[in-house]
Design brief:
- Helices cover about 30% and strands about 30% of the residues.
- The protein has about 190 residues and is of the alpha+beta class.
- The chain has a single domain, classed as Gcn5-related N-acetyltransferase (GNAT) (Aminopeptidase, 3-Layer(aba) Sandwich), CATH 3.40.630.30.
- An eight-stranded mixed beta sheet has the order 1-2-3-4-5-6-8-7, sandwiched between helices.
- Strand 1 and strand 2 form a beta hairpin.
- Helix 1 packs across helix 3 and helix 4 crosses helix 5.
- The longest helix is centred in the middle third of the chain and has 16 residues.
- The chain is globular, with a radius of gyration of 16 Å.
- It starts with 12 loop residues before the first strand and ends in a 6-residue tail after the last strand.
- The relative contact order is 0.16.
- The chain binds coenzyme A (COA).
- Coenzyme A binds next to helix 2, strand 5, helix 4 and helix 5.
C-alpha cells in the first residue's frame, strides 16, 4: 500500500563518509554482528536489543523495513565505503494523514563519536522531506542520553518537552525528551 504518496526516488543516499541504503536479507549476519558486539552500549537506550537473540529476529526486522519502505517510511543501513555496517536509521511510524513520522537511529559502539549519526540524519531527513510528503518529524531521546539529544539539536530539531514514563526499559520507566522538526527547519 502506498497511501497515495509518490514512490520514493533514488533509494540509495550518499554522504561524504557513508552510504545509506535499505537492508537486504544478505545484510542480516552483519546486522546481527553489529548489534551483538554493541549489545550493552545499545541496550542502555534501546528497548528492543534484548529481544534480538539471533539472526532470525533480524530477518523479521529487515522484512518489516522493506514492507514499510513503500508506505511512506525510510529505513536505511549506514554503510562505510568498504561495506561495513556502522548503524541503522529509520523515518518510521508514518501517519500519512498528518504528514508525520518519527526518526530513530543507532550507531555501533566502535563507530560512535565520529559524527556518523548527525551526517546520516541530515541526509535521511533531507531525502525524506523531499520524497515522503512529510510536514513533521518527531524524535525521542532518553533524558539521560545527551549524545542523541545533541544529534537532534545539530539537525535543527526543537526540544518540545518531556514525555514521562514513555517506555518500560527492563523494570524502570524512562522519561524521554520529545523533539520536533518541521519541513524547512532542517539544519544541514
Ligand atoms: C546516540 C548515537 C546514535 C550518537 O551517534 P554518533 O554517531 O556518535 O553521534 P554524532 O557523533 O553524530 O554526534 C554525537 C554528539 O553528541 C555529543 N556527545 C556525546 N556524548 C555526550 C555526552 N555524554 N554529553 C554531551 N554530549 C555528548 C558529541 O560530542 C557530539 O556532539 P558534537 O558534534 O557537538 O561534539 C550513538 O551514541 C548510539 O547509537 N547510542 C546508543 C543507541 C541510542 O542511544 N540511539 C538513539 C536512541 S534515541
Amino acid at each position: 500500500m502506498s497511501f497515495g504518496l509518490p514512490e520514493p526516488q533514488g533509494i540509495e543516499i550518499r554522504t561524504p563518509r557513508l552510504v545509506l541504503r535499505p537492508l537486504t536479507f544478505a545484510d542480516v549476519p552483519a546486522l546481527f554482528e553489529a548489534v551483538d558486539s554493541s549489545r550493552s552500549f545499545l541496550s542502555r537506550f534501546l528497548d528492543w536489543v534484548d529481544s534480538v537473540r539471533g539472526e532470525a529476529d533480524l530477518r523479521v526486522f529487515v522484512d518489516r523495513c522493506q514492507r514499510k519502505e513503500g508506505e511512506g517510511e525510510a529505513h536505511r543501513g549506514l554503510f562505510e565505503p568498504d561495506g561495513r555496517l556502522a548503524g541503522h536509521m529509520s523515518v518510521k511510524d508514518a501517519v500519512p494523514s498528518r504528514k508525520a513520522a518519527e526518526l530513530g537511529y543507532w550507531v555501533r559502539e566502535d563507530r560512535a563519536g565520529r559524527g556518523y549519526a548527525t551526517e546520516a540524519a541530515r541526509a535521511l531527513l533531507a531525502w525524506s522531506f523531499r520524497n515522503l510528503d512529510l510536514h513533521r518529524v518527531t524524535a525521542f531521546a532518553d533524558t539521560f542520553n545527551p549524545a542523541s539529544a545533541r544529534v537532534l539539536e545539530k539537525c535543527g530539531f526543537a526540544r518540545e518537552g518531556v514525555v514521562r514514563h514513555r517506555i518500560l526499559h527492563g523494570d524502570a520507566w524512562r522519561d524521554h525528551a520529545m523533539f520536533g522538526l518541521l519541513a524547512g527547519e532542517l539544519k544541514l
